[in-house]
Design brief:
This protein has 131 residues and is mostly helical. It folds into 2 domains: 79 residues, Non-ribosomal Peptide Synthetase Peptidyl Carrier Protein, Chain A, CATH 1.10.1200.10; 48 residues, no CATH class. The protein is 50% helix and 3% strand. Strands 1-2 form a two-stranded antiparallel ribbon. A hairpin with a 2-residue loop joins strand 1 and strand 2. It is globular, with a radius of gyration of 15 Å. The mean pLDDT is 93.
Amino acid sequence: MASKDEIFEKIQTALVDALGVDDDEVTPEATLVGDLGAESIDFLDIVFRLEKTFKISIPRGELFPEDVLTNSEYIQDGKVTEAGIAELRKRMPFADLDEFAKNPVVQDFGNLLTVADMCRFVEGKLEEAAE
């Protein structure tokens, strides 16, 4: 299985290629949308590159559960409800949602996912595949 450093390097390469950013911009703390400028269309490219690089399958909505953010059951007045936060925590155990949960404005969600979160996601997928 790949080491944490190898996983980071491969994710870094995928993000550089998909987003046209420089290597040094892709740090573990960098957010995909806020820091690296990813847009919704880029996420398809990123998922494709991760699947190809790591030989894993990433079902739609698993890494970026955008369906939660468009579901009226989980959104009220432009904010994610407690039920929505619970659903996001369940579906995104690799992401730190504590700060977002304090003021869960839907439009701020894009600034949540970091490169480190993606690394944890891929590590989890590789562990699943190894079992």
